[in-house]
Amino acid sequence: MESTKQPATNVNQSAVATKIAVAKGDGIGPEIMDATLKILKAANAHIDPQFIDLGEKVYLEGNSAGIANETWDLIKDNKIILKAPITTPQGKGYKSLNVTLRKSLSLFANVRPVVALDPFVQTGHPNLDVVIIRENEEDLYAGIEHQQTEDVVQCLKLVTKPGCQRIIRYAFEYAKINGRKKVTCMVKDNIMKLTDGLFHRTFDKIAAEYPEIKSETQIIDIGSARLAASPERYDVVVTSNLYGDIISDIVAEIAGSVGLAGSANVGKEVAMFEAIHGSAPDISGQGIANPSGLINAAVMMLNHIGQNKVAANVKNAWLKTIEDGIHTADIFKENWSKQKVSTSAFADAVIERLGMKPQNLHAVEEVADGARIEIQDYNRIKSNKELVGIDVFIDWAGSNPDQIGNDLDNLSTLGMKLKMITNRGVKVYPNGQEYTFCTDHWRCRFVPIESDMRATPPIYKAIAYDRIVNLLKTLDEGGFDVIKTENLYQFDGVRGFSLGQGE
Ligand code: NAD
């Protein structure tokens, strides 16, 4: 079993302080990290911060990954990271370090709890209490992009069975341990039937194992609209990387400020805790940033390492500070808040309230030891995989689909026949629509001549790869500019590729 720990673990408070890799980050990062560490120290958190350099400074020293090799070693030794936001320099081809950290350390679950602090932080949604659980490693964030023709660039959306299984199981386990009642899955599988379809099907399968927790699936567009309009209808939401990135910011913002929410990035070995917001360069160095997001992330970290009592103490002191109307500029409202304070004064106010509980907001209870999320290892079940054709993508600057279609039809393609051509996914040959706009990017689908495309459903003939090799050789010799290919497979007789629109 893979096991991850959220929100509480079996780790006992030992005599040796838990080593934490601490990154102060960029922009407002150092300001909010200093404030947070001051609170943790005053609360007697049993931690030993080990400072690491990440981000802008490292990028500008010429390290395009934004992280030095020795820092990786330190992270792997400590296994816990408390990280302030970092700045990714724009437009110089630097990869996002956040994405690199999440993927390299296999931090598959991004957990973002957001709760309204009504009436102390102004929000139109006083009953908002939502946890967004976002898949953190895959999807369009694989970052695999190519320019293929003059007109066309592409980004690969990768969705995997193990990725879907562990994030969805994590969401249900999280709901179970935290007494949550419902898990909502958000997908766009009316369009992306294979990728988002896999996420949806996996959700249905795993949801059936948790009959005590309600489950539902919504299409991401209407789901996000409803989440923004009536977030109180939601409890735990699980979704893929890009959708989760967007909706978690929406939920944090409508709760009052992106400056309030913390998040955990949880993997099997390592966990990283951070605020959800960025490095806010527009207010950096002014001492006015809200450290609450990082404080809340630190509370999640304390629970993760089993320091549940300290976690509850810090959280309650923070709630009491908010309730007492002591607010940083981002949430300060005249006639609503009592005192507008700087980042460090806010931290001092939290420290003064350690040991106190809020009177109106819900005080948190110390999380019980032993609550542990267990994620089963992925068990690959092999199916029968058959090669049944190929999509050949051709760069061609012409505009008449019939011309390239006829040329390909007339080519002697040795056991393969052209089934159709699409442009941006829409069938343009044979019998396309005259109004379809065509770019220089033509997807030409070839299937074995023995296939019966008139049958319902079509019957594909399995072939060996040498037919594909011969086809590609013929296309090359025929002067076609092949820019990429995608093999067509059936798995246990089920089509593993989408049809063209109009196919
Ligand atoms: P941002 O979250 O930094 O700022 C958006 C707005 O929210 C700004 O007006 C900012 O002043 C405000 N804000 C954010 N945090 C606040 C806080 N704690 N207190 C008060 N106000 C706060 O988003 P951005 O401007 O799009 O990004 C700035 C930089 O941060 C970029 O380089 C981006 O790549 C990086 N970033 C890093 C992370 C991370 O390290 N996890 C996440 C997102 C963005």
What is the fold's blueprint, element by element?
Blueprint: E1 2-4, E2 18-23, H1 29-42, E3 47-52, H2 56-60, H3 69-78, E4 80-83, H4 97-104, E5 109-115, E6 129-135, E7 145-147, E8 153-155, H5 161-177, E9 182-187, H6 195-207, E10 214-219, H7 220-229, E11 236-239, H8 241-254, E12 262-266, E13 271-275, H9 292-304, H10 308-323, E14 326-327, E15 339-340, H11 343-352, E16 373-375, E17 385-395, H12 401-410, E18 416-423, E19 426-429, E20 441-448, H13 465-477, E21 481-491, E22 494-495
Helix pairs in contact: 1-9, 1-11, 5-6, 7-8, 9-10, 10-11
The structure holds nicotinamide-adenine-dinucleotide.
Question: Shape, please?
Answer: elongated
| Second CATH tier, the architecture of the largest domain | 3-Layer(aba) Sandwich
Global structural class: alpha/beta
Proportion of residues in helical segments? 25-40%
Oligomer status: single chain
Mean pLDDT: 92
Number of domains: 3
Cofactors, ions and other ligands in the entry: nicotinamide-adenine-dinucleotide
Radius of gyration, CA atoms, in whole angstroms: 27 Å
Terminus-to-terminus distance: 44 Å
In total, the number of strands is 22
How would you sum up this structure, described in words?
With 503 residues, the protein is α/β, with parallel strands linked by helices. It has three domains: 7-105 and 257-363, 3-Layer(aba) Sandwich (Isopropylmalate Dehydrogenase); 129-254, Isopropylmalate Dehydrogenase (3-Layer(aba) Sandwich), CATH 3.40.718.10; 385-495, Alpha-Beta Plaits (2-Layer Sandwich). The protein is built from 13 helices and 22 strands. It has helices spanning 29-42, 56-60, 69-78, 97-104, 161-177, 195-207, 220-229, 241-254, 292-304, 308-323, 343-352, 401-410, 465-477, and strands at 2-4, 18-23, 47-52, 80-83, 109-115, 129-135, 145-147, 153-155, 182-187, 214-219, 236-239, 262-266, 271-275, 326-327, 339-340, 373-375, 385-395, 416-423, 426-429, 441-448, 481-491, 494-495. Strands 3-2-4-13-12-5-6-11-9-10 form a ten-stranded mixed sheet, with helices on both faces. 46% of the residues are buried. The structure holds nicotinamide-adenine-dinucleotide (NAD).
